[in-house]
Structures are given as C-alpha cells and as structure tokens.
Amino acid sequence: MDSNQFSRRNFFKLAGAGIAATAVSRVALAALPEIISAEKASTQAPLQPNTGRPYNPVVTLNGWSLPWRMQNGVKEFHLVAEPVIREIAPGMKAHLWGYNGQSPGPTIEVVEGDKVRVFVTNRLPEVTSVHWHGQRLPNGMDGVSGLTQPAIPVGKTYVYEFEAKRAGTFMYHPHADEMTQMAMGLMGSWVTHPKNPKFMAVDRDFIFLLNAYDIDPGSYTPKINTMLNFNLWTWNSRAFPGIDPLVVRKNDKVRIRIGNLTMTNHPIHIHGHEFVVTGTDGGWVPPTARWPEVTTDIGVGQMRAIEFIANELGDWSLHCHKSHHTMNAMGHEVPTMLGVKQDDLVEKINKLVPDYMPMGETGMNEMSDMAAMMDMPLPENTLPMMTGKGQYGAINMGGMFSLLKVREGLAKNDFKDPGPYQHPKNTRAYEFKGEVPEVQRQSVDDEKTAIELQVRKPTGHEGH
Question: Are 193 and 281 in the same domain?
C-alpha cells in the first residue's frame, strides 16, 4: 500500500498513514483547517489516531481516511467538493465529482461523543450540500438544501457542527441536485467508533461504498439521467481488476462495512466462510438477532456490517451475486450469439467495419481470454466486459468483485497484496484422465416414474 499518496495543496506530504492533528500550521489554526487531498486509487493503511479519544481505525478499500485537527476540544475536518479524475481500473479513467481529490471522498472517523465540525468548500460548478446519512443531529445540520439550509453557493464554505451521538457506520452525500451529483460520484463513508475501543473490536475492519456509473466506451463523463441501465458497477468507484484485495491474517476476526448508494439492491456473497450481519445504518444488531449467512442483500441507501473469522487459507471471491454486476462497460445491448455461426459473415462485415470482431458464439469467456492476451481491440477509455488474470488464466469477472486473501504470518498492520495463494499438494481441482462412462438413461416404463409423469386427467369439476 502506498502511504505517501497525499498531495500538499499548500500542505505537506505525509510521511506515513497517520498524521498528528496538531501538526497543521498556525495560519490554519486561526482559520480553516488546511486541505488534504489524495489522487491515487490504492488502499491506504489505516489512519492511527494521534489526538482525541482512542479507536480502532478502519481500512477504506481503494481509499483513505481524512485527517483532522483538534480545536478547543472539537474535532475539525475540511471537505472540498470538486471535480476529480478517478481511475476506474487500469486503462480507464472517469471525470467525476468527489471530495478532496477522490470519488468517493475520504472516510471520516470519529468517536462516539466527539464534538465534530466539518468545513465544506464548494468547488463544483453548481450549488451543493452535505447530508450526514443516518446521523442523529440538529435539524439545521441535516444538509437538505432549501429545507434545512440554503444550498452552498459555488466558491463558498459552509460549516456543519454536531455531536457524534451513536456508534455505527454511516455515509455522506449531497441533498442538492442529488441525482446529478451522486451519479457523478459525490459521496463518502463515515464511521463513528464506540467510546470503548474493546466493544465489538475486530482485528481488521474494512469499509467501502457500492456505486454505479453509465459511461459510454470512449467517453469520460457519466450520463446523469440514467435510472436503470448502468454499465459500470463499482466499489468505491473502482471496477475489478482495479479493486484491491482484502488482505487478512488467518484466524483474524474481520469486519466488512458496506454502504449502498446505487439505484438497486446488491446481494453481496463471500466464498469459503460464513458470516453474521452485526450492524446496519440503525446500529448494532443484538447477538440474539444474528444468524449465519454467506450472502446478504443490501438495499438502496442501506449499510451492512458483516463479521467472520478468517480461518480458511486461500484467495476467496467476494462479489455481488447479480451476475451482470460482475461485468464491465460493454455489457449492454450485446445480442446473444450462442450457437450462431459467424465465420461466413466476418469477411463481408470487415469490408464495411474493419475492426469488427465476432463474439459470443460459444459464450462470453472468449472476451476474457482475448482481453487477457491483449488481443482484443477496445474503444478508447473503456474496459472489457470481463477481465482480470489469475495464476491459472482469465478470471472472467469485472465490476463488483474482489478477493479476500487469507494468509498466515502477516504482521498486524500488513495489508500488502501477498500475491496468488500457493495451494498445498493435492488441494487443487485437477483434470480426470480416465474414461468417462456412458450416460445411463432411465426408462419411463419404470412404474414409479410413469406414475410421477402421468398427466392428471380432467375430472369434470374444474371451473365449478
């Protein structure tokens, strides 16, 4: 992980992931907190608290946590809403809106009972606001433009002040031209940690948002009026293989916090482990109300925290179980060509469309193979439908997909990608070399089968 990704923007480069809030300049202490920004899309190490109450920090998938300063007992943050350039995955970038250089913006971490002050500077081309999704706060701090406050004009800075009253996982996003601004990626995560760091403590705590975009191949800016037909399904505005793995030690207690700011639900599924849902946007789920799952459905505007013991070594898939959500930008308006012979058409079509490529005759796996071999021509600034390469070939996934990498011997704060899992001898699926027996078909003359297949005859009483 790159811990030196923060740009100075009249500030200073961080030497590590943690920053002392008292290190800001005297000029900033007299006015606004200075602006800390990040552009790189890699997962940053957790921000260790150097001031204020202690807590166990989270790790933002392909993101980072926003440093703060303490001012007379108040924890102060500075968000800047602005246009950003976000790499969706290697080979594709998007012109989005975000906070402090990224979309989503940085995660804000506080402790239950903290007095919080957030300065929000608007560098967008239109008015905005910030709604603190799920928080208990004074009505005038709720961030609904026109209802609870005037919208923040272009170039102006507004201040939100409230107490973080309850522990949990929340989100922040605009309530001003919401359809446009959220379609452009304007959102972020918020974690309020419990006062007692030992309460619900885990060894590794990850967080990310589900978001989606509609960006035509060759384009850079999302279509803001799309309601259903999105073509990029992302976690923290990243699509596989651009999504970093979640790296954990064997037997770690792991929490994954997931917020949904797309326009549909997402059944999130994990391989190799079962989990329990321990938190929602409404708070912690009592132990007596939990049950084991391997998939949990997260609705629009909802958040779920799942927990499990990572006691199975390996590279385990973690993904949305809607199959078209693990597919990238070229997934729509492609006809089904299964079984359709195209050989005799290719030469004719190529005279009119030189770059035409037949596809889908035997399924869409061929697109992954061609993309993995870099033989597949693509329009500018887009991604193959399915991509990503593993140690055994094309992974055939895109979109909302990542890996839970469970390893032995990792250091406590080691989140670096350990590379592919090396399977112990005789623990990997293998090809059978013997003869396959002929199919034995059961005759319907079998009395029991005939009874089961018998069509019920009319009794003459139907419809009366």
Answer: no
